Amino acid sequence: MPESSTKADGKGRRRKEARPAELVDAAFSLFLEKGFAATRIEDVAARAGVGKGTLYLYYQSKEQLLQAAVEQLLLPRFGDLQALIADPDLSAAEQLDRVLGLLWKHASASGLSGLPKLMIGECHNFPALARQFVERWIAPVQDQVLRKILQRGIARGEFSVSDPEYAVRCIAGGFVFLFIWGHSLADFDQRGFDPERQRTAWMEMIRSGLGLAPTTAEEALA
Amino acid sequence: MPESSTKADGKGRRRKEARPAELVDAAFSLFLEKGFAATRIEDVAARAGVGKGTLYLYYQSKEQLLQAAVEQLLLPRFGDLQALIADPDLSAAEQLDRVLGLLWKHASASGLSGLPKLMIGECHNFPALARQFVERWIAPVQDQVLRKILQRGIARGEFSVSDPEYAVRCIAGGFVFLFIWGHSLADFDQRGFDPERQRTAWMEMIRSGLGLAPTTAEEALA
Amino acid sequence: MPESSTKADGKGRRRKEARPAELVDAAFSLFLEKGFAATRIEDVAARAGVGKGTLYLYYQSKEQLLQAAVEQLLLPRFGDLQALIADPDLSAAEQLDRVLGLLWKHASASGLSGLPKLMIGECHNFPALARQFVERWIAPVQDQVLRKILQRGIARGEFSVSDPEYAVRCIAGGFVFLFIWGHSLADFDQRGFDPERQRTAWMEMIRSGLGLAPTTAEEALA
Amino acid sequence: MPESSTKADGKGRRRKEARPAELVDAAFSLFLEKGFAATRIEDVAARAGVGKGTLYLYYQSKEQLLQAAVEQLLLPRFGDLQALIADPDLSAAEQLDRVLGLLWKHASASGLSGLPKLMIGECHNFPALARQFVERWIAPVQDQVLRKILQRGIARGEFSVSDPEYAVRCIAGGFVFLFIWGHSLADFDQRGFDPERQRTAWMEMIRSGLGLAPTTAEEALA
DNA sequence: AATGAATGAGAATTCATTCAT
DNA sequence: AATGAATGAATTCTCATTCAT
Known about the structure:
homotetramer, mainly alpha, Arc Repressor Mutant, subunit A, Tetracycline Repressor, domain 2, 2 domains, 12 helices, 0% strand, elongated, DNA-binding
């Protein structure tokens, strides 16, 4: 009987290989929006356009879905970032610019920009995941990328920072906050929120702060 | 030992006046830790040291408990901050220092430092609360305190910022991120986290960024 | 310290002996209205104008309150009815009239008119009470009062009934239904409900039914 | 033995079409027996032979289950009754006989006979339902069926009633009481209860009451 | 492989009952 | 004697997970 195949063609059974990723995407977007506990499996299935039971064909539990979602976003590593640092022709400031630009572009395109919000919200309910997130993303980006750039900049006399280790955290934190805000309270701020403009403001802040030094002020105006 | 309670400490009944605040505190700390949905009323009661039903003597529902918790933290306003700005003898930089210092101290002491994490996680589940939070805290602090200081600083030639409106958001954001981090992923960061040190680094970043040397300025323009 | 006595005088501590009856009255009226299960002890206390705990000073449980309420209404027996039957000078029709009139008056004045509704609703939850009610009221009134009148009427040639045993149930049933209706659906009948008028109609129905025989019609008009 | 279900009788899943009615039946029988408040959802599920959660697949709440149950019984209207009245060849007395006979049969077969008991008990907790019940059953049967028969009987000289409007209520009331009694206190009456016999007695009572006039007795036998 | 009806453990909420004051 | 704050067992309802189709 060709019954099932006929109707399943229209919408039901597209690229079978893409399923897992679609499911994880749907789950991630809902987890991000409502949090893990407040997200219903049925809603995930609905958003993915499949039946509730189908989810369990690919993932054993709701928690596994979360793990898979985080895993998927954690997978693409930052080998390219490392490459940037390796380039000896660039100034440290240029390196910083490019690295942050790349991170920004990549995170904005992928769901990665949502991950911090999710992890911050769920870290105490899923400590293992939290640790993974910190160890595989936060710490490496800070310690193996940003810090090295900073140290090089200091060594070259480009930068003047009294506590590089924590300066790095400031730079990263401000960056991450941008993502968090965009995925949360920005929606409730009547004043509007322009991510690109904020990024620019942020880059300026990193470079020259409020431009306290008179001499610096001139350049900052540029 | 001069314990606080009069004598009914053993199993302590009848402290009607203190109850609501105790309950809200217990609820807030759990909401902050696990999120609203993942927090069980029974756990709130246990942490407050009362029976499950007692909570419902004071709050009609779990959601009302959340509202009360947020409300309580939103109540104390920042009249004192306003006073600081009004002082014409201080430089803008000093004003900023003091205002941020005060915010820091106040938020660290009260539960207010946890509110951003909570609101960021729950904003989509409780839009009304989110709006309240933004309108009664975020926006006023940015627009009526920080921005005014910045503008005065610019007018006085102290500061040099190209986009004051968003610079304010950067300053506030970095600050808020400190709180968020301390209430979430800091616990999972093997490298440790010293809030005070980060605050210092952050203040420096605000003031002078990476301290780009005059010569560096050229590259920064690139 | 004369503190407690002073304020307790105004409203708090009237006739102490009347308490139990007041409590039972409040309970009965609420049980009647909402049913036993749907009635909250706190509402009973409120209606009686006392604190929740006070109820337990007089009755050990909610169920005991119900038992006491029913008991109280079941107590006054119908010795006087029996006396009426004994009067040999009255016709059976007159006896019936008086007996039903007396029942009507008594039941309307006391809460007794509500008891059937309550018992009908609760009989399966409180079988013992139900049995008591049937055995101490329903059956006696039917078998020892009404049936005897009917039998006397038949013997005297006044009445003509083919099944006296069940005719008695019809008479009693119609009567009881009047009470039930008045305590329940009458409140939701837009057409209004005049108990006295219905009683009159009912008495006529008992005496002469629809007046099928032309000759009977005249008496029916009387 | 030719059981009804096809084969999945053992633990029987998947009978989606029959489910809602089964659930409503189970619920109705329990509501009727114990009242709404005293009935536990779990018991309803058990009586219907399903799990607790299954109920919520079909009805959103316990209250909706009640509404559905009442609705279901209120649905079948009395078009056939109307037809009987329209027949001009029947005497009014014959019409009355048939109408009441039909009501009796129908109500006894369906759960309708239980509805009055339920509605009387719950009317104050569910006023909207009560009004519906009165407006869609009680009032129509009385005003559009019984009253018309009575008026026709009076016009034709068959009946002789001084207050037709309330006579109708007596007739209907006695009838309804039969149902109520059968669903409640009859179970606790040691004397037994024969509904059919009581119906007969009731029909006689309607026709000729107690046959007060000596001459009336003969006709009462008719 | 896909589905969604069915399930029951678990969470929020209610309320009879207790008991310190 | 009177109170009402406190309690936790019991109840309604939800939702992750299973499984027959």
